[in-house]
Amino acid sequence: MVCFDRAWLSARVAKSYAERRDRTEKKERAVKLGNSEVDISTVVRDIRGVEDIVAEAIETDWSEKRYLRFDQRMYPFAEASDIAEWDSYLTSQYPPLYTAPEEICHDCHMGPCNLKKAEGKCGLEFEAYQAKLNLRSACRGCLSQVMDAREVLNYAIKVFGKDKSISWGMGQGRSDTCHIGLLTGLYPQSLADLDRAQSYAEEQLNKLLVASVQGTGSVADFEEMAFHAGSVLLVAQDVAELVKMNCFGLANAAEQDWREVTFFPWMVNGGLGSLEPGKPVVLFVGDNFLPGWVAANYLNEKGLTEQIEICGIGPAGDDIARFYDRCRVITGMVKASKAIRSGIADVIVASSSCISFDILADAQSVDSRLIWISKERNVGLPDRTDDPVDKIVEDLIAGAPGAWIRDCEKAGEVAVKAAQGIKRKPASGYLLSEDEAKKEAKKCREDCDLCFNVCPNSLMIGRGLRKVAQEGLGALSKVEEGCYFCGKCEEVCPENIRILDLIIAAQGKRQADDKFVMRAGRGPASKDEIANSQISSAATGQIVGGFPGVFHILGCGDAKYQQDISWIAFEMLMHGAIVFTAGCGAAEIARFSWGKYIFEIFSSEYQPRCLINQGGCSACAHILDQALKRPRFKRDISHYANYAEIVADDYHNGFLGPMLIVWGALPERMQAIVAAWARAGMPVIIGPSSAFGWKRYLLGNKWEWERWWVYDTFDGGKKYFTEPGPKHLIIPVETKEEVVTAAYFLVRKAVEARESAQMGLDAYIDLYNREFGELPDDWQLVVRSEWEIPATRKIAMLKVLREKWGWDIERTRINKARHPDGRMLLLTEYTKQYGGAISANVTRLPRLLAQDVKTFRKKED
Amino acid sequence: MAVKEPKELATYLKGKKNVLLLTGSLCDEIDFDDGKMLLDYAADIAKKLDVPVAATANTVKGLKARGVTNTAKKLVAEMVDYMRWSPWREPIIKEKPEVLVFIGYPPEVGNSLASTVKDGETVVLGHVYADYATYSLHDSPSLRHYQQRLEELVQALGS
Question: Is the Cβ pair B57, A735 closer than 8 Å?
């Protein structure tokens, strides 16, 4: 285990800076690597300005053996086009499918141009315009979180200084992959390094935004940039996480001994019903957790933690729970408006986030005071940033609706002080009574369901309302559960029924029961935790057959059936998977119980059948960072400024190939997050309804067998045809049952080892048969021998292979198999021609093939 | 792109050779006042047109229980994606369908799916007009209206 103390770390940072400065000043070009000497100017396009980064990465992270056999390059501070070799592979293998296309481009004063009829005046074509719109969505999805990372970083620099040392944790070191390293080449050791990484993210986002508005180019160009937007978001998330953990004490499992993370960190309570009645309530909403940090410290210092309830919605709640175990996590950002209208909060402290809504109106409707803290925009409140704390508090207590305070320290203090003096009705006093609800609901016509027509979740609102008129608010419970308060129903209602008020009143009926417990976010895993678990448990589990895959589950909470995401996680865990989650999805997963809440059932380590909550929205980065560590561990591939090589290495995907499930995919931020996963070659399932509102999917065609192949890295670039894997990169599905079945196929990779392949196929068939009452139509595509067919189903499945697909089967042995091109082949020949890359070291990029040692370096010279 | 009355749609569909019906999640969720499910109408349409059904979402069990035999569980995104490829290799139907008929998809979903199909025609049998579909039913102001239209369609398809 890597072990160092903070003083040592600071000294190391100082030494590293001195070395970097010397190197840059002396313009040193040669770096020693074992017995070789590397001219750093030959491994990057332009060495100027990045001498320090390149030399440091080669010296400390490169392997001489690999350098001698591979075309090693670095792309420090990578532009989208620097990773085009990989991105273009993805878009050719998974050609973008655009939905609800827009025909007319209004992007410039030369237009409008009808691109359906002809290319635009700038040369832009119809499909490329759809790709450009997709890029625009991905960029918009990045904006608030990139800005929040800057906000948190600037505050940390102000308080702690630029030289403040940072690390991923005691259990992590230079070899631990992170998006900052992958994209910039930097090994961040101080806030100054993070400033450099964050500036890179901002610069890249700026370029992408310009391209998304003024750019012209091909589909591939825009899709590469959309991928890049995802990567840029993850760089900003890395920055935010490093600041939060190092400067503000958010939980970090990589600071723990890896044997002690089983129940790390603490459990927190959540839901509207978790608040203790009668206590003042301060609610933090949005991306910025800093006022919450100030408030929690204030309460701790003053001994007021028992007197005042601190709760949060969205990233702020998740982050506060990582350092303040009394924080109540109420719900996700998508349902923020609905939660605020429940009237629980005396004071709301809010900042920008992934969702926009009229927060001031919502707060005023229940007499909550609003403190808005984002600097980039106001929501209609007077700017009180420079006013004395006591004066603002006095005004809020006297009834002022709120204040714009662009100072998080002042905002946190004002919130806590004001909450203690504000007198409001109990929350229920703001809701419709049963009688009022019945009277309102009676206005609903028998022959009208316009609300159903416009509801994005197809909720049967009208039917519910008509029942309320007879039976009371309980009749609206199903509608209330699936409603995320978009308000479209009210807009079309010909009787102007206060549908949202009725829904809030129905929510009030079950408010006391809206409780759950969840494990607070734990931050990243340490290198030792991953290494030890993979070697001693996960990998072994595969060999003996107990570990079908790694699943990342995220969700924004807009799904029609609230319990679905929890059910998905539970099914995955019960089939032996590891499940990672972060952001609003974690609270959604936590919400339902099987006698016990799901976080009470499953522990929190990097092992099969464990459920790991990494933290708030910015902690999504840890999930992907961890998933990309394997090529570094197992193949000596340096990750520094080396994105394509890391993600194109199929070996790591073959064993623990993770995939992402997004259940509730409404905000555009999720499009950027998904782009980051897809760019890493990891399949993504999105759903339910909101996912079909996305403009672009990346689908593969499993029946086009000629398109599925890999290169053997060490066999001179020999091409092997394989099973389709991963079958899709981004696919929308409709139901939770489709998620769990599709996931066990999508998680398969072309080089899947036999035992894990058998485990995955068993889970796939088991779930498919249970949910749909039949065998899937594609399981035969992944059978490469009888050894991959689950023993308990072997007889039945071999029978299907013989009768439906015409394979030659003798008892329990396959003599001949039918190749997808129709030929019958002896099994030995079949395996060579289809699926011959089992457990091989493979890649998809010609540049990443191993070269002949002598000729390769000679050629270079 | 065009609205058709149920009777016109029935005539149009009966005149097509390669029709593929796709049944979505709302088939299992929309129940009308008389207790009939949308899935009942989907099954009636499949049987009367005698066409294969790509049963998406969780509809396959219910379709089989209603006597639809030429059906298999599929993912709807895969089905519309295959329309981009030649030759057609998806085993649910031998040749590339001339027409995809969507029933049981939320309005935005049905419309979005129809918008992806370029090499073929689309019909969306939803309760809301789908402007990307080749043909669609009118907006139905209520579920009762929607049911009436489906009844008319099934009747017009004959026995």
Answer: yes
